[in-house]
Amino acid sequence: MVAESFCFTWLSMLFSAPTMLSNEDFSNLSDKGFSGNIQVQSNVRSDLDHQLVSLQLMVRYLDNISYSFNISNQAFTLGPFSCSRAPLGVFTLLNQSETVFDSLSYKLVTVLEYDFNPENPPNLLTCTLDSVPGLSCQIVVIDVRHYFVYVTLMTTLVGPIPAKIPIDIYYVSSAMQIEVDNRFPFLQRSTTIIDHLNSYPPTAQSFTTDTPEEIVEVITVVEASDVSSIFMSIGPDGYVPYPLAWVNDTSNKYIRVSPTSRNLTFDGYEVDNQAVFIANYNITLFPRPVNEINGVLSYYNDPDFGGIIVEYQLPATSIKNYKFSLQRNPGLNLEITDIQPYIDNVQAVYTYNFSLPILSEYNGDFAVTLPNSGAYLSIPSNLPESLMTIYKVDVFIVSDAEFVARFNITSRYPIFKISVSTMYTLNAGESLVYGDLNNGIFEVVFPRIFYKNCQFDIFDSRNTKVSFTSPQAYNIDMMVVQQNFTTAKSIVNVYDIQSFRFSKSVIDFSKSSSKSINVTLYFNFTSSNVNAFDLQFNLQNTSLTFPAIYNYSSNEFQVNFFVPTEMLPGEVPYHIYESKYGLFDMQSSFIKSIVGQAANLTILHSVGDLFPPVLTNITAYPSDNVMLGGVAQTIGWYLTIEDSPNGFDYGTVDVISDMDIKPISLMFNKLNRTTGNPNLGTYLVGFYLENSTVTQTFKLTNLKLYEISLAKPNYMLVDHLSWVFGKYDIQKSILVENTIEFKTNIYLSKIIIAPIDLTPPEISLFYCTPAVDVGSPMRVVDFKLVLQDNLVGLSSTHIPYVLLTPDNADPIKYQLQPEGKTLNAFNGSFSLPFGFSTKNILVSVHGIVDLNLNSRSYTSTDLKNAGFNYFIKRNFTLNTPILESARPISTDGGSLTLFGKAFGVFRDQLSVTVNYLDQRGTKNFNVNFASGGIIQTVDIGNINASVIKVHVTSLTTNKQSQDILIYPYNYIPPPPKPTSNPSNICPGTPPCNNRGDCTPSGCQCQASWTGPSCSSQTIVIPTPTPQPDPSTGTNIADNNNNVTSMINVVEVREIDDLDQIVQTFNISQWNFTDQSKSMNNPSYLYSSQLERTTTNINVTITYYQNQTNITFGESTLNIQASSIKYSIELSKFNFTKSTNLLQVVLEATIKSNNKDSCSSTQFGSEDGSKDDVKWIKMNIDKLSLYGRFIDFGIIDDKPTKITNRIIDDEDDNESDSSQFRSIKVGITLPAYDNIALLDPDFSNLIDVETDSSISYLCKSKGGLSNGAIAGIVVGGVVFLSIVIAGSVFLHKRLKSDREDKRMSQKLRAIK
Question: Which residue ranges does the record assign to the EGF-like domain (predicted)?
């Protein structure tokens, strides 16, 4: 059958007219049968005689058609036009894949391949399924030739499903029928028995929510035995399956989570070969009335700032962390949070305010909205209309995966942002590669996917957009984009899979005592370009994600992953997806439909528990109404948690106050357990209140519960308090009154202790860098802040932050750091993103709070009025290339592809220098292709070393980028040297506590255990934020104990053979490059040059979210999840003597704000000395910072012995205490010729058991805190007896008058 065909094209015309044309001048075209789009490009005209107009035409196959219209009484005729291309294609089915049942969606899936013209629109295929009531079909486009067909169950299913399911497929006016095999796992009536059906909150109830936008998560759990069916529901969100989450020998558990902010009702069904109603669920929600006042927007022109400053002010009657949504054209939507209000305790008014920058030529609307109110502003401009000239648009194929679009533009007003196909947008400051924002060359990189007509949108700062598609003329020279996007497609789909296999396809845990089993997946595609993509492999229903690494030796992808025993038995659902652009996502069911059984991954005899921990009870401690009476104490909650069989591991929760926007974040685990065991236990979660606090109400929110599981299940629950929603509302909140009670003969009276200070702190000094060049490698801004509070003093838990607000993107929040031990002075340095903002950057200060919770923010206008810096002048130059990363290259050589910034666009003005690190030394190479962010060189020849060093030089400015290291694949290292196992660097009894193997570098622990003796567990820390120098800081809140750890590169020393310092190099300025976009993990590169030398030092800080293995030299290093790795590279250094050594000094510190803490340090070495340590560990109670140091570096391309020495400096400013520990480690390497590479890593741990030989330093005289004692108990029997005795004693004391004091002391010490 031949389907009907149309031709689509753009017709561009240039007019000379006495007046400016508009779309209305062409409105009479519709009377002639015209049904396309009309665009009058008024913003690209140069005068009345050159007016560009574009029409999109649609002509039926073999038709001839003409269009006529009148402009200014002059007649025009266009045409005739005919469509002579081939028809849409013969409607012939070339291939149909195997039908597969998708266990996640409960749908059947098959893939159809048709012989369609590749230029056709890919969305003309539809389907119907009328022959089987209760089934429906859906078609999803893969590309113009390939389509997914889904068969979906509905709750109207009333009869048996046939073995072959007929489906009608329609293509325009043509139709055909296909058959889909019935692969549903149930072909007859079910034997399923529903044992329990529970919902949280219970059905048929009414509840009151705090706000109209509050989300209630409705949980429905079905427990069934002898299961031979599925469970699903029909409600506002359509047909939703109940995912399987728990399996044992007799029953299954299914869980459905339905978030809602309104009334909710749905029906549940059991479905086999028919659908059977099992229950109805409905709840009614009544939001509390919200008295939300509309904010006020105002603006003024500021000549010093060089633009408009918009001021927003919200006078509120309550304190909360508002989420302010900002909308302004063109298409700029932002969100601002964490704004501390100015508190007027006398009038009970809390004023939120902030400043926003707008360019002076802006002409349009501005809005700041909250869920129930908004403020709106119209900003007119009296300046001339926009005028833009697009000289040239080029689109280049720069890799197998990507295009780069280059725009040469002159504009009356600065270019604001550029978008390609609406999905790939860059702010103009980021995309500028040559010239300036008014007259420059801009580039946008975007993926090579199917574009019929690629659309380009260019916005200027006046709020004007010029839009055109690739076939349209974009200037009065009638130029169009010269690129065939249809044939440039390169995205793969399931039909491109060439090979696919698992090293183990059946995972049988009955044959293994391990908690996990390692598996390798090998696969490849017919397309040769897929190695350019960032592919990830994920075990669905979990957060376990593993990178797919391309093996250039075998020419295939390889995924090394593990399957935990907690996974559900049966076929494992997984998917492979492209992570950089989100271009494709291949579900395991899709893959199986193409490759068959080779895609199966099956689990046998597993634990089968992905069900979340269940919160069953909440009780406020000591009560839901606490009177401090001017005495500090601990308050909190008892949480009863059930989880079986895995057991509860740890949890986090936020405590919010009605008098403070900053939540108190708490973590709890088995050390907080007062009764029970991991399967059913009660945990006391609390925090310490100072005696100066004001009367306030605390409330639990954002509870996260995690079970003991390597699977890291995706629980679907956002807040685990949903288990008890509406049940323990009174116990979730604690009213704390700072009062004094006294008795008379008749009455019990209560006096509120009023705050002694009603005035928030003030800024006495504020400084920020006045100007920064955001096009250079050095984009650091410095801050200094001094506060003044005359009465109660500043809060130590509220650290001020600066808000840097650009005119074209989200503001950046930067937390300042206290200066030493003072609470009133703060400083900080921050590196701005490349190209940040369009013009100048507004600065404001927030989070200023005293001990009585008086708070305020300083907007930019407040800072200006106080005489302080309130903006940063933005400069932008492109003089120095910034090199960030490179595409992999083999030892056979070839063209180098380099990525970075500020490369320019002229290839003859660039040179690439390669240091081979062998006898060839250094060589310069010409560039074949250059864009602002991508360089491709000529063939660089063979590579003989394990690493090469590369930099880029601008021949115009004679400026050189920093060096990067490139590790070629296929490199075969020399055989490793044998080493003997050390005897005393593996603590524990026996060594590594039977949870790992003792190796020359320390204990290699089994999964879930880590630390020097395998008695600790990793703490998941947030991704470190970039700093202006190579340092990382991590804050861990554990009840009232806030522990901060820091790692920093301090200095570089040259020392002699007697360890005497010859010279010291302090590094004050670093060039920062964020490499995260080009890496699988967050990665920051810092480059500098040692003063008085030509030696460059590069420090790369990489954060590994998941456990992984990396290769360094000859060794494979296991990096724990949530670890920070430092990679240090030093270029040639001129040693004073050849016998001297070079030493890189790293400092690791850990610090607590809890005065009752205890601290300790440990290190491991072969002989017990500090001269060659393998690891260090510093504790604050049970929290620790753990660093590992390998004993070799890559020195002049060879693995070479180095030493890691603990340095005892006598001039340290801060000595060790019960709250502070610091260790400096000197990584010491011998003299070298060309290059040295070093590779330590660090992680934060929580101790489960601790060696009794550790010496703790505590504040209390001659004693340890309870937290330290709990961690130092030796042996399972002794530990068990102490815990039981403590629990019994605690239970008895709960009834005594001394409970408050004892529990406060215990809780304060255990944190």
Answer: 1003-1014
